[in-house]
Specification:
about 70 residues; mainly beta; 3-stranded antiparallel β-sheet; about 55% strand; elongated
Length: about 70
Amino acid sequence: MSDSGDQWNVPVGGCVGQTMKFGKLPVNIKVGGEYSVVSPDTFGNRYQFRFQITPVISGLIKNPIFGE
């Protein structure tokens, strides 16, 4: 069990992304970071970096729910 002052984690961060094409395949690329303003002293990360690549497959949805 941890001390009462060693229980909270308060992360603050953000990310940016852009959709672009690699050949014929559109992909979404995101880069972001996070800093824990308040974090436990006994475990956890103070900083976190994120890099994400997601392929966009538009042909699977024939009729969009919210319009064209």
